[in-house]
Amino acid sequence: MKIGRNKTIPIPKGFSAEDIRIESGICTGEKTIGFYSAADKKLHFAELVRTSADAEAFYRKYGISPDCGKK
């Protein structure tokens, strides 16, 4: 039995859905998703993205729609 599997957590303080960014490493092309801080110029609460399902899971974790914040 898995407990808390579908539980969403609040967006970290000081960030919004518009701050989510996927970045790719220069050398390996490894992708990470997280909340981008313009002040620090880095991702916070970053997680590794191997497939599109990983990115979708990140959005679900925070209860956000993947197309929210896209312009």
Characterize the structure shown.
This protein has 71 residues and is an alpha+beta fold. The protein is built from one helix and three strands; from the N terminus they run βββα. The protein has one helix spanning 52-61; strands spanning 20-24, 31-37, 42-49. It has a three-stranded antiparallel β-sheet, with helices on one face.
Main pleated sheet: 3 strands, antiparallel
How much helix, percentage-wise, in residues? 10-25%
Instruction: List SSEs in N-to-C order.
Output: EEEH
For the secondary structure, the number of strands is: 3
Mean pLDDT: 89
Percent in strands: 25-35%
* CA gyration radius, whole angstroms: 13 Å
Q: Please report the distance between the alpha carbons of the first and last residues.
A: 40 Å
The general outline is globular
Number of helices: 1
**Which regions are unreliable across 5 or more consecutive residues at pLDDT < 50?**
none
Structure class: alpha+beta
Neighbour order of strands in the largest sheet: 1-2-3
